[in-house]
Design goal:
Largest sheet: 5 strands, mixed
CATH superfamily of the largest domain: Glucose-6-phosphate isomerase like protein, domain 1
Shape: globular
Bound molecules: 5-phosphoarabinonic acid
CATH topology of the largest domain: Rossmann fold
Number of helices: 17
Helix content: 40-55%
Number of strands: 10
Protein backbone atom coordinates (compact mmCIF):
# COMPACT_ATOMS: atom_id res chain seq x y z
CA UNK A 1 0.00 0.00 0.00
CA UNK A 2 1.42 3.38 -0.94
CA UNK A 3 1.20 6.23 1.53
CA UNK A 4 1.70 9.12 -0.87
CA UNK A 5 -1.53 10.77 -1.94
CA UNK A 6 -2.11 13.11 -4.86
CA UNK A 7 -4.75 15.84 -4.46
CA UNK A 8 -6.06 18.09 -7.22
CA UNK A 9 -9.16 19.57 -5.52
CA UNK A 10 -7.53 23.01 -5.29
CA UNK A 11 -6.99 22.99 -9.05
CA UNK A 12 -10.55 21.99 -9.90
CA UNK A 13 -11.67 25.49 -10.84
CA UNK A 14 -8.95 25.57 -13.52
CA UNK A 15 -9.62 22.20 -15.14
CA UNK A 16 -12.74 20.69 -16.75
CA UNK A 17 -14.66 18.24 -14.57
CA UNK A 18 -14.36 15.54 -17.24
CA UNK A 19 -10.64 16.06 -17.92
CA UNK A 20 -9.74 12.42 -17.28
CA UNK A 21 -12.39 11.19 -19.74
CA UNK A 22 -11.33 13.78 -22.34
CA UNK A 23 -7.69 12.74 -22.00
CA UNK A 24 -8.29 8.99 -21.79
CA UNK A 25 -6.96 8.11 -25.24
CA UNK A 26 -3.87 10.28 -24.92
CA UNK A 27 -2.89 9.12 -21.44
CA UNK A 28 -3.55 5.47 -22.30
CA UNK A 29 -1.21 5.76 -25.28
CA UNK A 30 1.48 7.35 -23.11
CA UNK A 31 0.98 4.77 -20.33
CA UNK A 32 1.14 1.80 -22.68
CA UNK A 33 4.23 3.24 -24.41
CA UNK A 34 5.89 3.37 -21.01
CA UNK A 35 4.89 0.05 -19.45
CA UNK A 36 5.18 -1.92 -22.72
CA UNK A 37 8.44 -0.12 -23.40
CA UNK A 38 7.56 0.88 -26.95
CA UNK A 39 8.01 4.68 -26.71
CA UNK A 40 10.91 6.95 -27.65
CA UNK A 41 14.06 6.30 -25.63
CA UNK A 42 12.90 2.81 -24.64
CA UNK A 43 16.50 1.65 -24.31
CA UNK A 44 16.67 3.87 -21.18
CA UNK A 45 13.86 2.29 -19.19
CA UNK A 46 15.99 0.29 -16.77
CA UNK A 47 14.85 2.60 -13.93
CA UNK A 48 11.31 1.18 -14.23
CA UNK A 49 12.44 -2.09 -12.63
CA UNK A 50 15.26 -0.85 -10.38
CA UNK A 51 13.41 -1.23 -7.06
CA UNK A 52 13.01 -4.95 -7.80
CA UNK A 53 16.10 -5.49 -9.89
CA UNK A 54 18.84 -4.66 -7.36
CA UNK A 55 20.28 -8.05 -6.37
CA UNK A 56 20.84 -8.90 -2.70
CA UNK A 57 24.55 -9.37 -3.53
CA UNK A 58 24.84 -5.88 -5.02
CA UNK A 59 23.05 -4.32 -2.04
CA UNK A 60 25.23 -6.14 0.43
CA UNK A 61 28.39 -5.05 -1.45
CA UNK A 62 27.12 -1.45 -1.36
CA UNK A 63 26.64 -1.72 2.43
CA UNK A 64 30.08 -3.35 2.90
CA UNK A 65 31.90 -0.66 0.92
CA UNK A 66 29.88 2.04 2.71
CA UNK A 67 30.93 0.56 6.08
CA UNK A 68 34.56 0.44 5.02
CA UNK A 69 34.62 4.08 3.91
CA UNK A 70 32.69 5.10 7.02
CA UNK A 71 35.27 3.40 9.25
CA UNK A 72 38.12 5.16 7.47
CA UNK A 73 36.59 8.64 7.22
CA UNK A 74 35.19 11.63 9.03
CA UNK A 75 34.22 13.04 5.63
CA UNK A 76 33.33 11.35 2.34
CA UNK A 77 33.51 13.58 -0.73
CA UNK A 78 31.01 12.58 -3.41
CA UNK A 79 32.20 13.90 -6.76
CA UNK A 80 29.58 14.13 -9.53
CA UNK A 81 27.22 16.50 -11.32
CA UNK A 82 23.56 16.44 -12.41
CA UNK A 83 22.10 12.97 -12.07
CA UNK A 84 25.39 11.78 -10.63
CA UNK A 85 24.89 13.67 -7.37
CA UNK A 86 21.45 15.26 -7.02
CA UNK A 87 19.55 12.10 -6.03
CA UNK A 88 21.99 11.22 -3.26
CA UNK A 89 22.06 14.81 -2.00
CA UNK A 90 18.24 15.01 -2.11
CA UNK A 91 17.81 11.95 0.10
CA UNK A 92 20.68 12.67 2.48
CA UNK A 93 19.71 16.29 3.11
CA UNK A 94 16.00 15.44 3.42
CA UNK A 95 16.76 12.92 6.15
CA UNK A 96 19.63 14.65 7.93
CA UNK A 97 18.30 18.21 7.79
CA UNK A 98 20.27 21.43 7.41
CA UNK A 99 22.12 21.29 10.73
CA UNK A 100 23.67 17.85 10.43
CA UNK A 101 27.25 19.17 10.15
CA UNK A 102 26.81 20.65 13.66
CA UNK A 103 25.17 17.59 15.23
CA UNK A 104 28.42 15.84 16.17
CA UNK A 105 27.29 12.60 14.57
CA UNK A 106 30.44 10.57 15.18
CA UNK A 107 28.94 7.30 13.95
CA UNK A 108 28.71 8.33 10.30
CA UNK A 109 30.93 10.44 8.10
CA UNK A 110 29.76 13.79 6.82
CA UNK A 111 28.98 13.49 3.12
CA UNK A 112 30.18 16.56 1.19
CA UNK A 113 29.76 17.16 -2.53
CA UNK A 114 32.18 18.36 -5.19
CA UNK A 115 32.47 18.31 -8.97
CA UNK A 116 29.08 19.98 -9.41
CA UNK A 117 30.57 23.40 -10.22
CA UNK A 118 33.87 24.89 -11.42
CA UNK A 119 34.35 27.33 -8.56
CA UNK A 120 38.00 27.62 -7.58
CA UNK A 121 37.09 28.95 -4.12
CA UNK A 122 34.70 26.05 -3.48
CA UNK A 123 37.41 23.51 -4.30
CA UNK A 124 40.04 25.42 -2.34
CA UNK A 125 37.85 25.66 0.77
CA UNK A 126 37.00 21.98 0.59
CA UNK A 127 40.71 21.15 0.33
CA UNK A 128 41.30 23.16 3.52
CA UNK A 129 38.69 21.05 5.30
CA UNK A 130 40.23 17.83 3.97
CA UNK A 131 43.68 18.84 5.20
CA UNK A 132 42.31 18.43 8.73
CA UNK A 133 39.92 15.49 8.33
CA UNK A 134 40.26 11.84 7.48
CA UNK A 135 38.38 11.37 4.25
CA UNK A 136 37.49 9.13 1.32
CA UNK A 137 36.22 9.84 -2.18
CA UNK A 138 33.34 8.45 -4.23
CA UNK A 139 33.68 9.63 -7.82
CA UNK A 140 30.61 9.21 -10.01
CA UNK A 141 30.27 9.74 -13.75
CA UNK A 142 28.30 7.59 -16.14
CA UNK A 143 30.06 8.86 -19.24
CA UNK A 144 33.32 9.08 -17.35
CA UNK A 145 34.22 12.17 -19.35
CA UNK A 146 32.29 15.04 -17.73
CA UNK A 147 34.58 18.03 -17.16
CA UNK A 148 33.35 19.31 -13.76
CA UNK A 149 33.78 16.03 -11.84
CA UNK A 150 36.96 15.21 -13.80
CA UNK A 151 38.56 18.48 -12.61
CA UNK A 152 37.49 17.91 -9.00
CA UNK A 153 38.67 14.29 -9.05
CA UNK A 154 42.07 15.19 -10.44
CA UNK A 155 42.52 17.67 -7.57
CA UNK A 156 41.28 15.43 -4.76
CA UNK A 157 42.96 12.26 -6.09
CA UNK A 158 46.29 14.07 -5.94
CA UNK A 159 45.46 15.46 -2.48
CA UNK A 160 44.44 12.03 -1.20
CA UNK A 161 47.56 10.33 -2.59
CA UNK A 162 49.80 12.98 -1.02
CA UNK A 163 48.04 12.73 2.32
CA UNK A 164 47.79 8.93 2.59
CA UNK A 165 50.22 7.52 0.00
CA UNK A 166 49.14 5.80 -3.20
CA UNK A 167 48.35 2.40 -1.65
CA UNK A 168 46.09 3.74 1.10
CA UNK A 169 44.46 6.25 -1.28
CA UNK A 170 43.42 3.27 -3.41
CA UNK A 171 41.45 1.93 -0.42
CA UNK A 172 39.80 5.31 0.03
CA UNK A 173 38.62 5.88 -3.54
CA UNK A 174 35.56 4.24 -5.10
CA UNK A 175 34.42 4.87 -8.69
CA UNK A 176 30.87 4.51 -10.01
CA UNK A 177 30.77 4.54 -13.78
CA UNK A 178 29.95 2.71 -16.99
CA UNK A 179 30.55 -1.04 -17.23
CA UNK A 180 33.24 -0.72 -19.90
CA UNK A 181 33.55 2.77 -21.44
CA UNK A 182 34.97 6.16 -20.53
CA UNK A 183 38.07 7.70 -19.01
CA UNK A 184 36.92 7.07 -15.42
CA UNK A 185 36.46 3.35 -16.04
CA UNK A 186 39.94 3.20 -17.57
CA UNK A 187 41.45 5.11 -14.64
CA UNK A 188 39.63 2.98 -12.06
CA UNK A 189 40.89 -0.24 -13.69
CA UNK A 190 44.41 1.12 -13.94
CA UNK A 191 44.49 2.22 -10.28
CA UNK A 192 42.60 -0.80 -8.95
CA UNK A 193 39.75 1.14 -7.29
CA UNK A 194 36.61 -0.58 -6.09
CA UNK A 195 33.97 0.14 -8.72
CA UNK A 196 30.21 -0.04 -9.12
CA UNK A 197 28.43 -0.07 -12.45
CA UNK A 198 25.71 2.31 -13.67
CA UNK A 199 23.51 0.12 -15.86
CA UNK A 200 23.54 0.98 -19.58
CA UNK A 201 19.76 1.36 -19.64
CA UNK A 202 19.52 3.91 -16.79
CA UNK A 203 20.18 7.60 -17.57
CA UNK A 204 21.87 9.89 -15.03
CA UNK A 205 18.76 11.67 -13.76
CA UNK A 206 16.96 8.34 -13.26
CA UNK A 207 19.89 6.71 -11.44
CA UNK A 208 19.29 7.50 -7.75
CA UNK A 209 18.21 3.92 -7.02
CA UNK A 210 21.44 2.49 -8.50
CA UNK A 211 24.79 2.62 -6.63
CA UNK A 212 24.98 6.28 -7.79
CA UNK A 213 22.50 7.20 -5.07
CA UNK A 214 22.56 4.13 -2.85
CA UNK A 215 26.28 4.16 -1.95
CA UNK A 216 26.44 7.78 -0.72
CA UNK A 217 23.09 7.34 1.06
CA UNK A 218 24.37 4.19 2.82
CA UNK A 219 27.63 5.98 3.74
CA UNK A 220 25.53 8.65 5.46
CA UNK A 221 24.06 5.86 7.62
CA UNK A 222 20.60 5.91 6.02
CA UNK A 223 18.52 2.84 5.27
CA UNK A 224 18.72 2.04 1.56
CA UNK A 225 16.50 -1.03 1.99
CA UNK A 226 13.62 1.12 3.23
CA UNK A 227 14.22 3.59 0.41
CA UNK A 228 13.93 0.75 -2.11
CA UNK A 229 10.87 -0.64 -0.28
CA UNK A 230 9.07 2.67 -0.76
CA UNK A 231 9.96 2.73 -4.46
CA UNK A 232 8.91 -0.92 -4.79
CA UNK A 233 5.47 -0.19 -3.33
CA UNK A 234 5.02 2.76 -5.67
CA UNK A 235 6.15 0.66 -8.64
CA UNK A 236 3.61 -2.04 -7.75
CA UNK A 237 0.84 0.57 -7.81
CA UNK A 238 1.83 2.60 -10.87
CA UNK A 239 2.79 -0.22 -13.22
CA UNK A 240 -0.33 -2.29 -12.57
CA UNK A 241 -3.16 0.28 -12.51
CA UNK A 242 -3.96 1.60 -15.96
CA UNK A 243 -7.16 3.32 -14.83
CA UNK A 244 -6.44 7.05 -14.45
CA UNK A 245 -8.79 7.37 -11.50
CA UNK A 246 -6.70 4.81 -9.58
CA UNK A 247 -3.25 5.84 -10.72
CA UNK A 248 -1.91 9.07 -9.11
CA UNK A 249 0.95 9.47 -11.61
CA UNK A 250 -1.47 9.32 -14.55
CA UNK A 251 -3.68 11.92 -12.85
CA UNK A 252 -0.74 14.21 -12.15
CA UNK A 253 0.61 13.85 -15.70
CA UNK A 254 -2.78 14.58 -17.30
CA UNK A 255 -3.39 17.66 -15.14
CA UNK A 256 0.13 19.05 -15.69
CA UNK A 257 -0.30 18.57 -19.43
CA UNK A 258 -3.68 20.28 -19.46
CA UNK A 259 -2.42 23.24 -17.41
CA UNK A 260 0.63 23.58 -19.68
CA UNK A 261 -1.53 23.72 -22.81
CA UNK A 262 -3.70 26.35 -21.10
CA UNK A 263 -1.00 28.88 -20.37
CA UNK A 264 0.51 27.51 -17.17
CA UNK A 265 4.06 27.15 -18.41
CA UNK A 266 5.84 27.05 -15.04
CA UNK A 267 5.45 24.48 -12.27
CA UNK A 268 6.55 25.67 -8.86
CA UNK A 269 7.49 22.68 -6.73
CA UNK A 270 6.99 23.81 -3.17
CA UNK A 271 7.97 22.47 0.21
CA UNK A 272 7.25 24.04 3.56
CA UNK A 273 10.23 22.17 4.99
CA UNK A 274 13.71 23.39 4.01
CA UNK A 275 15.10 19.87 4.29
CA UNK A 276 13.43 19.12 0.94
CA UNK A 277 15.44 21.85 -0.83
CA UNK A 278 17.65 19.34 -2.63
CA UNK A 279 14.74 17.04 -3.35
CA UNK A 280 13.30 19.95 -5.32
CA UNK A 281 16.67 20.43 -7.04
CA UNK A 282 16.52 16.75 -8.04
CA UNK A 283 12.95 17.25 -9.35
CA UNK A 284 14.10 20.31 -11.36
CA UNK A 285 16.78 18.30 -13.13
CA UNK A 286 14.52 15.30 -13.71
CA UNK A 287 11.74 17.31 -15.34
CA UNK A 288 13.86 20.05 -16.90
CA UNK A 289 16.16 17.66 -18.78
CA UNK A 290 13.38 15.26 -19.63
CA UNK A 291 10.64 17.61 -20.87
CA UNK A 292 12.45 20.73 -22.01
CA UNK A 293 13.16 20.09 -25.68
CA UNK A 294 11.89 20.79 -29.19
CA UNK A 295 10.72 24.19 -27.85
CA UNK A 296 8.28 22.48 -25.51
CA UNK A 297 7.98 21.65 -21.84
CA UNK A 298 6.90 23.02 -18.48
CA UNK A 299 9.66 25.05 -16.80
CA UNK A 300 10.33 23.35 -13.44
CA UNK A 301 10.99 25.84 -10.66
CA UNK A 302 11.22 25.42 -6.91
CA UNK A 303 10.38 27.29 -3.73
CA UNK A 304 10.69 26.78 -0.01
CA UNK A 305 7.74 28.37 1.75
CA UNK A 306 7.15 30.26 3.93
CA UNK A 307 10.74 31.53 3.30
CA UNK A 308 10.10 32.42 -0.35
CA UNK A 309 6.67 33.90 0.37
CA UNK A 310 8.76 36.85 1.54
CA UNK A 311 10.64 37.03 -1.76
CA UNK A 312 8.73 35.38 -4.60
CA UNK A 313 5.34 35.40 -2.88
CA UNK A 314 4.35 38.72 -4.45
CA UNK A 315 5.03 37.38 -7.95
CA UNK A 316 3.19 34.15 -7.30
CA UNK A 317 0.16 36.07 -6.05
CA UNK A 318 0.01 38.85 -8.64
CA UNK A 319 2.64 38.45 -11.38
CA UNK A 320 2.19 36.85 -14.85
CA UNK A 321 -0.44 34.11 -14.61
CA UNK A 322 1.81 31.39 -16.03
CA UNK A 323 2.27 29.44 -12.81
CA UNK A 324 0.80 26.42 -11.15
CA UNK A 325 2.16 24.99 -7.94
CA UNK A 326 2.66 21.49 -6.63
CA UNK A 327 3.14 21.31 -2.90
CA UNK A 328 4.88 18.41 -1.17
CA UNK A 329 2.96 18.45 2.07
CA UNK A 330 4.36 16.55 5.07
CA UNK A 331 1.72 15.46 7.59
CA UNK A 332 3.98 14.94 10.64
CA UNK A 333 7.18 16.50 11.89
CA UNK A 334 9.73 14.25 13.64
CA UNK A 335 9.97 16.40 16.75
CA UNK A 336 7.62 18.42 18.91
CA UNK A 337 8.14 22.07 19.72
CA UNK A 338 5.34 24.29 20.95
CA UNK A 339 5.04 28.07 21.33
CA UNK A 340 5.78 28.97 24.97
CA UNK A 341 3.54 31.24 27.07
CA UNK A 342 5.11 34.64 27.81
CA UNK A 343 3.93 36.71 30.75
CA UNK A 344 4.53 40.05 29.03
CA UNK A 345 3.27 39.02 25.58
CA UNK A 346 5.03 42.00 24.01
CA UNK A 347 5.20 40.15 20.68
CA UNK A 348 1.46 39.42 20.89
CA UNK A 349 1.98 35.70 20.32
CA UNK A 350 0.16 34.36 23.38
CA UNK A 351 -2.83 33.51 21.19
CA UNK A 352 -0.57 30.76 19.79
CA UNK A 353 0.62 29.43 23.14
CA UNK A 354 1.02 25.63 23.22
CA UNK A 355 0.40 25.39 19.47
CA UNK A 356 2.86 23.06 17.72
CA UNK A 357 5.12 24.78 15.18
CA UNK A 358 4.31 22.14 12.58
CA UNK A 359 0.59 22.79 12.96
CA UNK A 360 1.20 26.50 12.40
CA UNK A 361 3.25 25.60 9.30
CA UNK A 362 0.34 23.49 7.99
CA UNK A 363 -1.99 26.43 8.55
CA UNK A 364 0.42 28.72 6.67
CA UNK A 365 0.22 26.17 3.87
CA UNK A 366 -3.57 26.18 3.88
CA UNK A 367 -3.81 29.98 3.95
CA UNK A 368 -1.29 30.27 1.13
CA UNK A 369 -3.13 27.68 -0.94
CA UNK A 370 -6.38 29.64 -0.60
CA UNK A 371 -4.66 32.93 -1.51
CA UNK A 372 -2.83 31.48 -4.52
CA UNK A 373 -5.93 29.75 -5.88
CA UNK A 374 -7.80 33.08 -5.53
CA UNK A 375 -4.91 34.71 -7.38
CA UNK A 376 -5.24 32.29 -10.31
CA UNK A 377 -2.55 29.75 -9.38
CA UNK A 378 -3.84 26.17 -9.58
CA UNK A 379 -2.63 24.15 -6.61
CA UNK A 380 -1.73 20.46 -6.70
CA UNK A 381 -0.71 18.64 -3.56
CA UNK A 382 1.29 15.54 -2.80
CA UNK A 383 0.94 14.42 0.79
CA UNK A 384 3.31 12.10 2.63
CA UNK A 385 2.98 11.01 6.27
CA UNK A 386 6.51 12.15 7.22
CA UNK A 387 9.94 12.56 5.67
CA UNK A 388 11.43 9.07 5.82
CA UNK A 389 13.39 6.68 3.62
CA UNK A 390 10.12 4.99 2.72
CA UNK A 391 8.28 8.12 1.67
CA UNK A 392 11.29 9.41 -0.27
CA UNK A 393 11.45 6.08 -2.12
CA UNK A 394 7.77 6.41 -3.00
CA UNK A 395 8.23 10.00 -4.17
CA UNK A 396 11.30 9.21 -6.29
CA UNK A 397 9.47 6.54 -8.24
CA UNK A 398 6.28 8.61 -8.44
CA UNK A 399 8.06 11.64 -9.94
CA UNK A 400 10.13 9.51 -12.33
CA UNK A 401 7.02 7.73 -13.61
CA UNK A 402 5.04 10.98 -13.96
CA UNK A 403 7.96 12.60 -15.78
CA UNK A 404 8.18 9.78 -18.33
CA UNK A 405 4.41 9.96 -18.93
CA UNK A 406 4.66 13.76 -19.24
CA UNK A 407 7.35 13.41 -21.90
CA UNK A 408 5.23 11.01 -23.93
CA UNK A 409 2.20 13.32 -23.60
CA UNK A 410 4.38 16.08 -25.09
CA UNK A 411 5.55 13.74 -27.87
CA UNK A 412 9.19 14.10 -26.98
CA UNK A 413 11.84 11.60 -25.87
CA UNK A 414 12.03 12.03 -22.06
CA UNK A 415 15.31 10.11 -21.81
CA UNK A 416 17.79 12.09 -23.90
CA UNK A 417 19.36 15.51 -23.29
CA UNK A 418 20.81 16.76 -26.59
CA UNK A 419 20.67 20.41 -25.47
CA UNK A 420 23.17 19.86 -22.65
CA UNK A 421 25.96 19.46 -25.22
CA UNK A 422 25.69 23.04 -26.57
CA UNK A 423 27.53 24.78 -23.72
CA UNK A 424 30.14 22.03 -23.63
CA UNK A 425 30.97 22.46 -27.33
CA UNK A 426 31.56 26.19 -26.84
CA UNK A 427 33.52 25.72 -23.62
CA UNK A 428 35.83 23.11 -25.16
CA UNK A 429 36.40 25.30 -28.19
CA UNK A 430 37.22 28.30 -25.99
CA UNK A 431 39.52 26.17 -23.85
CA UNK A 432 41.30 24.90 -26.95
CA UNK A 433 40.49 21.22 -26.36
O1 LIG B 1 20.77 13.11 -16.42
C1 LIG B 1 21.82 13.19 -17.03
O2 LIG B 1 22.12 12.35 -17.90
C2 LIG B 1 22.86 14.25 -16.75
O3 LIG B 1 22.41 15.19 -15.85
C3 LIG B 1 24.10 13.62 -16.17
O4 LIG B 1 23.78 12.95 -15.00
C4 LIG B 1 25.18 14.65 -15.89
O5 LIG B 1 25.43 15.41 -17.03
C5 LIG B 1 26.45 13.97 -15.46
O6 LIG B 1 26.88 13.05 -16.40
P1 LIG B 1 27.92 11.93 -16.09
O7 LIG B 1 27.37 11.04 -15.06
O8 LIG B 1 28.15 11.22 -17.39
O9 LIG B 1 29.19 12.61 -15.61
Amino acid sequence: MIQLQFHSDSASRFIPADLFEQSEKQIQTAYQQLVRQTGAGNDFLGWLDLPEAQSADELSRICQVADRLARLSEVVVVIGIGGSYLGARAVIEALQGPFHPFMNDTRHPQVLFAGNNISEDYLFDLQQILNKKDYSIVVISKSGTTTEPAIAFRIFKEHCEKKYGKAEARERIVAITDRSRGALKQLADQEGYDTFVIPDNVGGRYSVLTPVGLLPIAIAGLDIHRLLDGARQMRACLTTKDDTTENPAMQYAVIRNFLYHNGKKVELMVSYDPSLFYFIEWYKQLFGESEGKENRGIFPAGCIFSTDLHSLGQYVQEGERILFETVISVNQSHHTLAIPYDEQNTDGLNYLQKRKIHDINLIAEEGTRMAHVDGGVPNLRITIPEISENSLGEMIYFFEFTCALGGYLLNINPFDQPGVEAYKRNMFKLLGK
